[in-house]
Amino acid sequence: MAFNHLPAAMHDALGPLSVTPVTHSVPMAKNHRPSRPPENAGSRPSPTVVLDRLAAAAGRAARITHTEHLPPRAGTHALWPDRIRPEVISAIGRAGIDHPWTHQATAAEHALDGESVVIATGTASGKSLAYLAPVLSTLLEGSHAPNGRGTTALYLAPTKALAADQRRAVKALAAPLGSAIRPAVYDGDTPVEEREWVRQYANYVLTNPDMLHRGILPSHPRWASFLRSLRFVVIDECHTYRGVFGSHVAQVLRRLRRLCARYGSDPVFLLASATAAQPSVAAGRLTGLPVKEVADDASPRGEMVFALWEPPLTELHGEKGAPVRRTATAETADLLTDLTLQGVRSVAFVRSRRGAELISLIAKERLAEVDGSLPGRVAAYRGGYLPEERRALERALHSGDLLGLAATTALELGIDVSGLDAVVIAGYPGTRASLWQQAGRAGRSGQGALAVLVARDDPLDTFLVHHPEALFQQPVESTVLDPDNPYVLAPHLCAAAAELPLTEADIELFGPAVPELLPQLEAAKLLRRRTTGWHWTRRERAADLTDIRGGGGRPVQIVEEGTGRLLGTVDESAAHTAVHEGAVHLHQGRTYLVRTLDLEDSVALVEEAVPPYSTNARDTTAIAVLETDTEIPWGDGRLCFGSVEVTNQVVSFLRRRLITGEVLGETKLDLPPRTLRTRAVWWTVTEDQLDAARITPEILGGALHAAEHASIGMLPLFATCDRWDIGGVSVPLHPDTLLPTVFVYDGHPGGAGFAERAFHTARTWLTATRQAIASCECEAGCPSCIQSPKCGNGNEPLHKRGAVRLLTELLRTAPPDPPSEP
Question: Which parts of the sequence are annotated with region: Disordered (predicted)?
């Protein structure tokens, strides 16, 4: 029997939710009601005062396990390079900026010298102005050219919201420059009638890598004038381009550089990120170019107070009678409510779409107890909303009409929400980079800021709130991406060949794996070699071969059955678990039941309902070793890294009572299996090691399964991943190894670099895993150590003490971690 733990690409990324209703959401006396904010709530109290007020309710102070105080910092000014046109410097002055920070001037100097540069300074340090000053100056210079279109620039953002926000900022800054600067957004939300104007007249086009991949590059003849004049490519929030998504974007950028060369341009790349380790290395891997680094932050910073918050244990019991900690969802809803009542402008970041909806709904209901006008000051913001819904929420947040927002990471990236006072983070977001990115949304006007990390009932979250040094004394993670991944590279070679025939000269641009892949693409009749190079042979669009977000397939539309109204979409990869028949779906505070899921037409039909339960899918997984790339001895056991094939099938779903999490029943599902070829790390143990660890056959499966769960929960501390990016399988006797084996694999075709990073940090990673299990206060295992929210086997079997003994024995003779790849 295999015990599995699956990634988001194959499992419900929402996880089971035991939602505490509003009437039970605050540990206070029955006669205690939320009160109106104090009279001076609008006077921006210090973050310490705000935290003290949050901790004042009964029992709350004990939930704060650590408080980190980041002191304010003074800024250092410089002068703009004399090559920045005076009109641009004047426009910047009108915006209230008399002199740049030193890092802004340095970055602008590199850009004007024709050197690609990455600006890796803190949140709200003025990175946008650092690249906008040289870009606007160059565009203005080009507007005076006697002939032709003049100079152009391209801006890439990972989200539509960030591109739209940047357009607003550019338009406001460049207003004094008149029609010389013509910014325009070009993405999936751009009306068809506006697209031709953008192609012909805009000189600063803001888009995303998806539109560049599917819309601009395949239609490059229509963009010839723009590409011929392209001087700068701005890549904002470049740290988000990691894993499979980052690898795809790296190849999209190489296709862009190839077409630019065809039209006679050689653009300079300007990259920005508030949270990047080895920024020049990561930027160089992303763009394929040498990149200068500007990382000394000279901007001032207000005080930040960062609290780690652990919800209390409840009297409830979950699977196998394990104690249940109060959910991060319910705790965050309380905090967002209280911050709103204080008049503190706040965002609560939530990991799942469902969680964002629930937090907003709970907060609205609690606020209604105080004043009927207050619920309208709180909303949810997440992916999957229709464009007009997103834009309305963004406007309300900018204007201050909204005081509190429960948001997914769709709002994490760079949107300038000036004036936020506090950020609540519901569960560790998977990386320190994302943690600081989310925390940095507050205090963006220079004022003090409060950030609160609310721990989920999860091994990693529990470890972090009791080991603050892992957060505050460690650098952000290195960006992991692999542009040479054949599953990534192959479709981009096809797309490039469809744009212009591939030649021998292109091999160096696209990487060393190209010579091996081209014959395979020829054999598959995707490319044909002629005297002029390799040509795309098919009628369909080559750009449609891959979804660069790694989801694959077209999104599933969620449609209200009675009205035909489109509610939103869900990625095809998540459809089996998120919108299967009988699933509960939340949208803007309303609850729907999925009646049918039509995989052929990519439609889920839903109807509004109020079920007293949540749902989560169950599945089965098998794994086969295809090839072992690296193998080292671990005592008598082995540590291995290589290629595997994972077969997964969603087979049923559970209905859980909202209040207690009690399982009400299980319903079988008939959905097709899915196969994934990816990369994995795995370790084996021998009979002698089992004897030494006192692991009997009766507890072997539970010990392996518990170690697997906890190791997946801890891996994000050592690799730039989220636990939903990875999966695992544990087997008492695996047919390929003929030994008890634990696998941890990347949840993306071809791999994403996470399992490889686990291999190179295995001793450190598994030592932390053992410590997390052993230090947990529970008796037999709980969600804080070995139970997983996405276990396909219902967390059965698990054996906590067996896992500790097994890992102790495994690590006793383990060699030091092998050196990482450069």
Answer: 21-47
Provide the whole-model pTM. 0.75
Q: Has residue 357 got a pLDDT over 90?
A: no
Residue 297 and residue 272 in contact, taking contact as beta carbons nearer than 8 Å: no
For the record, the structure tokens of 167 come out as 């357009």
Q: What are phi and psi of 600, to 5 degrees?
A: -70, -40
Side-chain half-sphere exposure of 125, counting CA atoms within 13 A: 29
HEC letters along 494-563: HHHHHHCCECHHHHHHHCCCHHHHHHHHHHCCCEEEECCEEEECCCCCHHHHCCCCCCCCCCEEEEECCC
Distance separating alpha carbons of residues 102 and 391, to the nearest angstrom: 35
Paired with 306 in beta bridges are 68, 451
Query: What is the distance between the alpha carbons of residues 657 and 667, in angstroms, rounded to a whole number?
Result: 15
According to DSSP, the β-strands at 346-350 and 404-407 are parallel
Place of tokens 């006797």: 733
Q: How far apart are CA 305 and CA 52, in angstroms?
A: 11
Phi (first) and psi of residue 172, to 5 degrees: -70, -45
Q: Where does the pLDDT of residue 128 fall: very low under 50, low under 70, confident under 90, or very high at 90 and above?
A: very high
Q: How far, CA to CA in Å, does 501 sit from each of 228, 338, 702?
A: 19, 60, 55
Identify whether the C-beta of residue 429 lies closer than 8 Å to the C-beta of residue 350. no
Place of tokens 């050196």: 819
**Cα 455 to Cα 462, 477, 500, 625, distances in angstroms:** 6, 20, 51, 36
SS (H, E, C) 130-189: HHHHHHHHHHHHHHCCCCCCCCEEEEECCCHHHHHHHHHHHHHHHHHHHHHCCEEECCCC
Give the whole-angstrom CA distance, residue 786 versus residue 711: 9
In angstroms, the CA 232 to CA 147 distance is 20
Residue 730 pairs in a beta bridge with 3, 742
Q: In angstroms, what is the C-alpha Rg of the chain?
A: 27
258, two tokens: 């190839």
Q: What are phi and psi of 100, to 5 degrees?
A: -75, 160
Distance between CA 722 and CA 712 in Å, rounded?
A: 9
Classify residue 468 by its DSSP letter.
T
> Which residues, at least 6 apart from 285, have a Cβ–Cβ distance to it below 8 Å?
250, 479, 481, 483
Q: Residue 225 in contact with residue 145, Cβ under 8 Å?
A: no
Cis peptide before 797 (omega within 30 of 0): yes
Q: What is the mean pLDDT of residues 272-286?
A: 86
Element (H, E) at 728: strand 726-731
* Interval 215-230: pLDDT, tens: 999 999 999 999 999 9
Give the Å distances, CA to CA, from 423 to 265, 345, 435, 444, 792: 43, 9, 11, 12, 33
Query: What is the three-class DSSP state of 239?
Result: helix
Lowest mean pLDDT of 81-95, 309-323, 415-429, name the range: 309-323
Sorting pLDDT into bands at 50, 70 and 90, what band is 420? confident
What proportions of the chain, in percent to the nearest 5, are helix, strand and coil?
40, 25, 40
Q: State pLDDT tens for residues 592-606.
A: 999 999 998 999 999
Contacts of 371 (CB under 8 A, 6+ apart): 36
